[in-house]
Structures are given as C-alpha cells and as structure tokens.
Amino acid sequence: MASNQPYLRRVRKYVPQPGVDDDEPPKNAVPTTNARMATRAPQVQHHLPTSRMYKHLRSRSQSQANFSEHTINHTHSHSHSHSQSQSSSMGSRYARKAASTAQLSQQQQPTTIESLISKPPASLTEALQDLRHLILTQGVAADAEGNSALRIYIWSILLGVAPMRTNEYVTLVRRGASSSYSKIRNDTFRTLATDPLFRRRVSESSIIRLLNAFQWKMKDTGVDAQYVQGMNVIAAPFLYAARSEVEAFSLFAVFIQRECPGYVRPTMEGVHSGLKLVDQCLETVDLKLFAHLQTKFLTAELYAFPSVLTLSACTPPLPEVLKLWDFLLAYGAHLNILCVVAQLLLMRDELLAAQSPMKLLRQFPPLNAKKIIETAVRLVKRIPAELFDQLVDHAR
C-alpha cells in the first residue's frame, strides 16, 4: 500500500470535484462508456441546447441499432458475426454508398449538423445516415484550434456512448497504480509533446489517470488487453475534445474495446495486420508507387507503424486530426488504413523522385484532413471485396 500513496495523493489533488452530475454521483466525483446504440439516455440537456435528437439517438436499444444491416446498401457482404462487426460494418457499408453516390437528395438533407440534431429524428436510420453524410460533406464546425461545441456529442452519438456514473471512474482511479503504471508513466510525457494546443489544455496527470483507470477496467472485464505504446496518443484526441476527463475516458474505453481491440493485445496483431493491408491496398491502387518503395525495401512496417497504431493521431496539426477522426468515427476506424494510403498518394511525386524515400516517410507531412478524406473515399471503390472485408475486420 505504501507504494501507492504518492499516486493516490496526485489522484486526490487532480480529480475534478463537480457538485452535481448524472444519477446523483457522490460529492467526490469525475464523465462515459457503453455500446453503439446505448440503452441509457444521456443527461445532457442542460449542456446542449440542441439535444433532442441526441437524446433520441442514444436512448435506442442495441437491438434497434440493427437497422443498418437491412437499410444501408453495401456492395460487399460480411460473413463474420453481427455482434462483432456491427459498429464497423455500419460505417463501412455507408462509406461504400457515399463513395459511389455523387450526391444525396438535397431535399431530404438537413442544411447543417446543428439543425439535424436540434429535433427528434423521424427515422433513426435516416438520421444517422444524414449525420454521416453531413460530416463527410460539410464537416464539424470548429475554430482554428479545433474547439467545437458539438464534436464531443457527435462522437458520443456515433460511438453510442451513454454517460457513466462519475463515481465509477473515481473508483477506478482510486485503486492506485495498475500493473502497467510504470509503462504508462514512461510514455505520457511524450504525448503530442510538440503540440502547444494539446499541452496547454491537457495535463500529463489526466493522461496517466485515464490510461491507468482503463487498465483496471480491462482487468475487471477479463479482456486480453494491456497497455501498449501508442495508447497515450489514441487517448489524446478524446481528452482534447471532451468536456471532462470522465467523458474522455468513457469514449476512449468504448473506442478501444469495440473499434480496435486487436491494436492493444500483447502481440498487437491488429496493428501488424493493418500494416500488411497498407502494403496490399497501395499495391492495388498504385502499383508503380508500391514497386518503387519495394525496390528501396520499404514496407509499411518500416514507415507507417505510428500512423496505423495511433489512427493518424501522431501526425500534426491536432485540429486536422480531429477532422480526420470525425470521418473515422462516422464511417469506421478501419478506414484509417486507406487514410494512410491516401497520405502516400498525396506525396506520390516526391516519393517517386526521391532516391531515399525513407527520408520523406520518416515524418509524414502535416495532415490535410479534407484532401486525405477525399482521396480515401475515392479509394474505397477501388478496393476488391475480399480485401475490403479484411480491412473491416483487421483491428478485431
């Protein structure tokens, strides 16, 4: 117990102490986790004026969310279990539709995301399709620093995250240092260390608490997961965008458990599968560039590991990362593989002209989310069915 005392002192000092929260949490408290169409309606009306659709979308049961299997046309069928693939297939199927449809009927489309979520949806199916389409065509409104009043609510809707009781997070934090605590401490100080926006808003203590609490949560649920390098960077966008540390924790926990559990297993097989898919997709869409890199003995394992592991969150600037994540959360985190390929295509001329391409690949150019997303969406149509199915499943 003595070894945990300094850690617990830091916990008591830094854990937020809100006065009132959902479902009467204790006075010593901290915000959110659950499934894609959560069964609990969130208590956020006092925070979000345009919360009526938000409440309706997130109060539907998980079984009601099965609509996507029947209403969203996809050019490929999946044979894996519905429970394992539902969240990714929802987005990926609609991504196929978005890539092949020039424009949805403007008469049926709300003009903005805010107008969409300002009223209860007549159809949950159409509302989620409209939300994804608006994210793709208009993006989430934000200022130059990536601040957005709506983004965290949109992410919660897309992930189906209902508010967790504040004291649930506090309980995890107060358990002290997990078995991964030393590994976490070795990484957290490096999290987006050169990004002044992130360093100004998110403390290292918050990152430590979130990651350490997640390790306790995984241990309690018996999931074969451990802290791996890069999880700190995946946590960063959630901590930056969320209103509170607890809200960031709940989104992060659901995202890791449902979207990319294979990335955090001890062998990191999901990451290595993703790297192989980068090579396969590049070979499919640009054989010349792929062959050029092969002549230099450059595979994705050598240059794309950070981008795959962190879902491109390792590449600045942070406001562009948030825009890219809006797309990934809407259509499926597995599409980050195509976003990595898109970044290669955007530097194609430079790579083909370079005698030492690794000098360029050692650090990718600053993210341009709009160009990357546009390129990735075009690539979706060019990926064969079997390869696309591997893409959807690789992180599981």
TrEMBL record:
GO annotation, cellular component aspect: Bfa1-Bub2 complex; mitotic spindle pole body
A Pfam entry, by short name: RabGAP-TBC
A single BP term in Gene Ontology: negative regulation of septation initiation signaling
Rab-GAP TBC domain segment(s): 145-332
This protein's record includes keyword Disulfide bond: no
Chief place of localization: cytoplasm
Start and end residues of each stretch annotated as Disordered: 1-48, 72-111
Gene3D superfamilies: putative rabgap domain of human tbc1 domain family member 14 like domains, Ypt/Rab-GAP domain of gyp1p, domain 3
Molecular-function GO terms, alphabetical: GTPase activator activity
SMART domains attached to this UniProt entry: TBC
Compositional bias annotation for Low complexity: 98-111
Compartments, record wording: Cytoplasm, Cytoskeleton
PROSITE patterns listed in its UniProt record: TBC_RABGAP (PS50086)
Keyword annotations from UniProtKB, A to Z: Cell cycle, Cytoplasm, Cytoskeleton
PANTHER family: MITOTIC CHECK POINT PROTEIN BUB2, TBC1 DOMAIN FAMILY MEMBER GTPASE-ACTIVATING PROTEIN
Entry similarity comment: Belongs to the BUB2 family.
Protein name (Swiss-Prot/TrEMBL): Rab-GTPase-TBC domain-containing protein
Organism per entry: Sphaerosporella brunnea
